[in-house]
Structure formats: structure tokens, C-alpha cells
## 1
Amino acid sequence: MDMIGKTAGRIGQPSQDLYRIAQKRLDNLTKPPGSLGRLEEFARRLVAIAGNERPALDRKVIFTFAGDHGIVDEGVSAYPREVTPQMVFNFLRGGAGINVLARHAGSEVVVVDIGVDYDFGELEGLVNRKVVRGTRNFAKGPAMTRGEAAQCVESGIALAEDYAKRGYRMFGTGEMGIGNTTPSSAIAAVLTGKSVAEVTGKGTGISDETLKRKVAVIDAAIRLNRPDPQDALDVLSKVGGAEIGGIAGVVLGAASNRIPVVIDGFISTAGALIAYRIEPKTADYMFAAHNSVEKGHRAMLDAMGLDPILDLDLRLGEGTGAALAMLMIEAGLKIYGEMATFGEAGVSDEIVN
Amino acid sequence: MDMIGKTAGRIGQPSQDLYRIAQKRLDNLTKPPGSLGRLEEFARRLVAIAGNERPALDRKVIFTFAGDHGIVDEGVSAYPREVTPQMVFNFLRGGAGINVLARHAGSEVVVVDIGVDYDFGELEGLVNRKVVRGTRNFAKGPAMTRGEAAQCVESGIALAEDYAKRGYRMFGTGEMGIGNTTPSSAIAAVLTGKSVAEVTGKGTGISDETLKRKVAVIDAAIRLNRPDPQDALDVLSKVGGAEIGGIAGVVLGAASNRIPVVIDGFISTAGALIAYRIEPKTADYMFAAHNSVEKGHRAMLDAMGLDPILDLDLRLGEGTGAALAMLMIEAGLKIYGEMATFGEAGVSDEIVN
């Protein structure tokens, strides 16, 4: 907890002065004021976050954390757990959705085994930060110990620190873990105060009957484990997941290094919400990539005051939405850095009506 | 009208067989079926439009048509008309929003003078297709003759034909013209049947008072000119604009060459709606880039059954939304072409629940 507390304590606010300076430049570019809408918002925020009037976004990385979940024993997922390691191999070969979309967005992908129930041994390209071999079935007791949960968050922080030092200037989050909408819904219910039914959806595509079981399993598990909504690490350990903890750590590490972090979909947002409850200033560094199809996503975004960038009916995870959103955020920075001002272009900025 | 009629007559339907073939491949990629949402829709449509199982999108171009509007004499715009040629010079120097965002999207920009009230002479990089030196003030009579309106559409068709022959595989539309939300609102009202007040907004940022005048001017102009809603060319000539006609032509030319065309915002959509009323099959080739802030945009999209891709509070025009949307559409095609199948990746596609 010491590393987590220290990291959280280092998080400051984005520069309000630079926010104003950026706004002034945006208003002076050859377009009606505000007419590039959210691209202008992205530019202002990036400038204020970087604390630098002309920030560069040259190196971007998406952290895709993989973990397994004991809760799948309750029959809450559409796919068998073998798919988690199979998809990790797919990531490493470059054939998954996140590989394609990260290439499209000019971002690297770092695949992290933080809790997969499979022994990969030494594997080229896989970052081994395994804390657990799958979480325990939280229908029967806590998913992780408090120490394991902290270790997951610390692993995320350490990765963020490392990539910040290496000059990466934008992070994205992603995950892979069969069953991981279940802990995410549990976190959403505990931390937003909504009912489990309100924040539980069909994940990768379960039937109505399985959805009913999923809601009942989560409800019972919350009653059994009694996670303390005032203690985010307690929630993460009792009804969370390893990859969700890793994402929370990346968010904390990003914010403490003044690096913007693009939060992917439902599961990533559960991780971001854990980070937010540890330190609310983290929200100033977050960009919500998209509005997931998964029910319950919006409640978590609202709890952090985030407005999603895209709405493309995505529900894959892995960081795919984050990759796409990076293209829009970067567009904002390019507008800011590359457009001519009225003076440079000899365009009248007189408003006649 | 002959060229317009012939072009419209050549427009066929995208291949229903290829739509199904594309769907099958998408369902076989390493992701839950449908989990990439609209990206999958884009891929299916691109395959069906191209009539080719593996279409390439290597060359993209956005046509930005510039024109002036006599209706600005009625005090309906926030900016003086000199801004139209000033912005054309800005486009040619690469300093405008569309230049920045087209570069970001890997698209070329072709700037077309179709109706600017300024003599550019011979100018490197400017395509001269001038039909009028600004339209006439349609508060006092038709904006253009029927022949002029047809010539604008034909110019768009000819440009589309030319770029299709040169191997461009995706088109975008854009425009610049001080005052051009006014003819666009007039077209929207006449062709959707909504009241002028329902489809008229603040354009680049007029006051409430000017908005009231704008609505009154359009209302009176429609009563005066009596455009025939069953005759799109009549509507274009009486209350339209040259750049709107050019865009309608690009849409017709794109569809007749089986090339997808990304429709930018409010004004571009008015042009697309003219094309749609000439030949409704054009809608199968359109992608609506974004949901403009401009009131009345949605009514026109609904009339064509189009669902906008982005919603970023944009209201600049020029083709800026089209450039951004191209990045999302291309993402769909990359997913389709580059992701591994379950078989290739050794990932289980067994659904257990």
C-alpha cells in the first residue's frame, strides 16, 4: 500500500494556466471559435496535462493485461477459460483486434500476464507480472488477498513508471480475461451504489438465462464478501480481478507522471474507477475511449464525470476502443499544433453579426 | 441533365452475396461475433460496395468545394464573404482544419472553386470549375438557373469519374462558403417537409436575433421561389448553392463507380440529399461522417436512413468530419483484412453458455 499511497500522493492537477493559454490559441486558429468541438477539448486537456505549451504525442502504448477468474466456475461466461491463454498467444502473434487497431493508431501494445491460469514460461514479447494463477471464485470467498490486490496495482504503477521514463507520452488500457465482465459488474455495483441488475450485461454474448444467473451470483457474492465501498483496494481484492488491478495501477502511474491515459471499455473503466476512488485527481488524466454496449459502463463513467469519445457499439475489450480513440485525441493535438492562425493566413476574424 | 440521368441510371446495388461472404469472415475472426460493432458494419459495406472480397482503400480523396452565396446580403451569416476566398488560399497553403485532418487520415484534399465570388486566375493546386461568381440572392429570385445547377452537379460527377479512373477508392465531401448553412436549411426544409425553424441553426455562430432573421428569410424565399420537392434539381437551383450541387455530383459519381463516399456535416448532407432524391440507391454508397451540432442535420440523415459515425460536436465543415470518419471506416476494413481467424490462431470458438 505504501507504493500506491506514495504514487497517489504525487498526483497534481493539470495546469490551469496552460488550459487558458491553449484555449487562446485555439480561438485564434482559422475556424469559428469552438467549431472543432471535442477536438478542441482534447487539445486543451493534453496541453494542461503535459504542462507544456506544445506537447508531443510521438510515443503511445496500450497495456493489455490478461487474467483469469475463478468465478467462471459459476457458469457466468460464454467462452471457456482456455480462451484467455489462447488469446494471449494471438496477441503475441499480432492477429487479434487490438494488434490491428493499435497498428492503425500508431500505438505499441504491451501484453502483460498478471493473472492467467496458464504457465507461459519464458515467452518472447510477453511481460510476466503474474500475481495469481487466476483469481479465486469470489462466490465462495475473496477473489484475492489484500496483498495480492495491492501487488496487481503496484505492477501497473511500475509499468507506467517504466514507460514514462522511456519517453511514451500517451497510455491506453486494455484487458483479456474470460469472465471479467463479472468482477467488473460487481465493482460497478459496489462503487456506484447501483443494483447489480442495473450494471450487469451480457458480456461476450451469454443467454438471458445465464444473465439471470450472473446477476444472482454477483448479488450473493457481494453479500458474502461484504466489500467496503469506502476502500477501493478492499473491493478490488474481494470481487475484482488481477487485470482490473493492473489497469488501476496504470491509471495511477499515468496521472503521477502527467501522462494522459485512454480508458478502453467496461472492464478498463472498472479499473479506472478503482484508481479514481484511491485518488479522484486521476480523472483529470483520463480520456474515456467509448461508450460500451455493456450495461453498467455509463454508470461508472458518470461517477467519474467522463464523457466517452466514440460510440461504435464495441464490446470486445483488449484496448480496441482505446486505440480508436487515440486517433481522435491525436487529431485534436494536430489541429492545435498545425492549423494556421487568422493572422498567419490573412483570414478575417471579424464577426459581422 | 443527360449526364446526370445517365450517371444515376448506372448506379447499381452493392453485392448482396459479398455482404454475406464478408459477414461470414467477420464471424470467424478471433472475437465474439458482432463485438466490433460498427467497424464490422463498415467492413461488410465496403466489401459489398467494392464488389470484391478483399477491397483495398489505398487512395482516398476529399473534395472541398468552395462557393459564395447572394443570400448573405440578407445578413444571415456571422462572417463577411471575403472569408470564402481567404479560406481557399488557406486550404492551398495547407493551414486549414481540413488540411490537418486529411493528413492525419492519409487522405488527399482537392480544392474546387465551383462558385466563389473572386477571380483566382490560374492558381497552383486550385481546381477551377467555376459555374457562378456566387449564387444570386434567393430572397429575390432563384439562386441559380436550372442549367447552372445542372452544371454544378455535372462538375462533381466529372471529378468523381476522373478520380475513380486514377485509382482512388474512397471519396469524402467537404465545402467552404460563407452563408452556406442558409441554402442547406432551405433544402432540408423543402426535401424533408420539416418547418424551416426546425432545420435552421446558428451556423458558424450567429446571435439569436440573426437566427430569427435567417428563419424568416428562408421561409419567405421558399414561398417566393416555390421549389418543387419532387424535383431535386429545381430545389438546388432555386434555394441551393454551387458547392452543394458539386457535392451532389460527387455522390452520384461515387455511387456509379462503386466507390464509398463519406458525407461530412450539415451542408454536405444537403448535397447528399439532392443526390439521393435524384437516385435513392446512392444511399447505399454513403457513410455519414458525424452528427453535426447544426440543427436540421439529423432530419436529413434520417430521410436517407444514415446513422452518423462520430459525435464530436463538430460544426466546421470543409470535410473535417469526413477525414476523421475515414479513420474509423478504414479501421473496419483493417479488422476484416488483418485479424486472425479462430482456426489460424488456435483459439476455441466454442460457446459454452
## 2
Amino acid sequence: MYNHQPKDEPCSICIFLSGRETEHNKRSDIVFEDKNTIAFISPKWWINNPGHVIVASKKHFENIYDIPDNTLSRVYVIAKKISIALKEAYQCEGTSTRQHNEPAGNQDIWHFHIHVFPRYKNDDLYKRHDQSRFVEAKQRLPYAQKLQKYFLNYQHS
Amino acid sequence: MYNHQPKDEPCSICIFLSGRETEHNKRSDIVFEDKNTIAFISPKWWINNPGHVIVASKKHFENIYDIPDNTLSRVYVIAKKISIALKEAYQCEGTSTRQHNEPAGNQDIWHFHIHVFPRYKNDDLYKRHDQSRFVEAKQRLPYAQKLQKYFLNYQHS
């Protein structure tokens, strides 16, 4: 419903899920994975919120209109898990989530995903919306490692 | 977990749920309601996104860290329903959702809730974050009525 994915454009999240790495998505970015869901460090960062996390369904749905209720629920339960993990692993002062549908709604990756942000006092996440940029895999790695360590301890607790 | 609600501050969403109206929350703002969830026109609007909707759990939980998984899921299933309704009732060009935790995460109402926005090309929802303001009940009413009409037809279809 209301789909915008160009017919000749492969889905970058599906490519990543198939096991292929790109400069934007490395296996080392993955912080949590289960049967239905994947969570990884976003390749694009906002200026004062480094290391935010993308949570996506493994099955391809373009947007919130299309995703089945049970898949949607599962993705948000993992987003909750990531929010708690960010508080512990990054010691951030808050968290927020957002999700975009269609080009007018800021969507530019055609596979349903949620952004989970670590938040800090006066980070101006919204006002500085234009100040986002892609970061190198080596910049993402220490953030991924903090969350991977958190989930490893969490599993064993 | 990580709670910030001042002890002497009553919860404005719980007050509304108890049946009391204020200038910010009227019964006529309600567009959808079931056993666990309520959706109503936000009293605060962003400059190019009039009539956005708040979806909240009826039971009081402060934030994403505290809300149980099944309640969280239910609230997002209703947010999906509202997103589809906005497309039909407002003829908007996209939708987006966001959810805030703790003051550093832009939270200022201490009861878990999701913002569901109608989106339009170049609406600059994020860049113009500071340009929000409370609007009068009479401004909210035509938006509420559009969604109420949608859900009435939806029930009968």
C-alpha cells in the first residue's frame, strides 16, 4: 500500500540480510538478532547522537501500512530492548524512536525499520536534522561492541 | 525505570482518561478507543503537520523502559491503524511516528505515548521543531471529525 520502492532498486536491508557486506552495513554492526528481527548500528549518524540503532524485520515489508501486526509488534519489542541497552551501554540521558513512511515522511530505505536514538541534553536531534552523515565502519565498531557486550552479559544473567 | 514524573504533578493523560476535560484535551478529540488504548488529536501541533494524533496506553506507564511488551505492541498496532487512517482521511503524502523517553529525549508528558504525524513534501517537521504551539479545541475539531468519520465507515465496511 502506498509503495515507492523503484522497481530497479534492490533493497539494501535485504542485501545485508542475505549476508553481503557493504561499506554502510558490516556484520560487525549487528548488535541483536533473532528469528524475525535484526538490530544494527546505523551507517548514518546525526551530529550529537552517535551510534544510534536501526531495528528491522527480517521479512521485507516497505512500510507501516504493509507490515503485519505481529511483525510490527515484534520489531517494537526489540526496539524497547535496544532502548534499555542504550541506557546501560552508552549511559545516555534519554532515548527516542522514530519511523518514516514514504518520501514525504522522510523514508529513503524501502524496508520497514525503526531508528532508536541515544539522547543527550540539548542534543538538538530535530533542529539539526540536516547535519547527518554516513560514517565509516571503524567509527561504528566501538558502539556495536558496547551493545554486543551488554547483550552477552544480559544473556548470561 | 529512569522515571522523571514529579511526585506532585498529576498525569495529564490519566486525568483525561478519567473523563475530565481541559482546554488541551476534550472528549471530542478522541478518534479511536478500545479496552487498552486511546487515540486523540494532539493539543500541540507542529507548523506544517496540523491534526497529528497521540496514541497512548490506558494504563499508566511512564516510558518505553517500563511498558510491558504486550501493551507496547497493542499501542503500535493502533498507531499503524491511525497511519492508514491519516492517509485516507487527510490525504497526506506520508506518515511518521516518534516516541520520547526522559527529558533529554524530548519527553514532557509522563505517560507513554506515540506521536503519529501526517507528512507532506517539504514540511520540515524536524528542522522546524521549535515552531510548535498549542491550538484551540475548535481548531482540532475538524481533524477529529475526519478521523471519526473514517473509523465509522471502517467499522461498517
